[in-house]
Design goal:
Helix 1 (7-40) packs antiparallel against helix 2. Helix content is 78%, strand content 0%. The model has no long low-confidence stretch (mean pLDDT 89). By secondary structure, it is mainly α. The chain has helices spanning 7-40, 44-54.
């Protein structure tokens, strides 16, 4: 596969990918936990946390 990436940029991306994937997985687990808590015992605080977790990152 051809790419216009400079080798240094490609190396940076390869280095960052595992951290990014780990962060995505942790965020997904957190969302799942909050949703489960909302189902079991909904509170206003959990509702606001769920909304916050569903908003796109800035």
């Amino acid at each position: 596969m051809e790419t216009d990436l400079h080798p240094d940029d490609a190396n940076r991306l390869r280095f960052a990918l595992p951290r990014c994937l780990r962060r995505l997985e942790e965020h997904a687990q957190r969302r799942q936990s909050v949703v489960q808590q909302l189902r079991e015992k909904p509170t206003e605080a959990l509702y606001h946390l769920a909304v916050e977790l569903l908003e796109p990152s800035r």
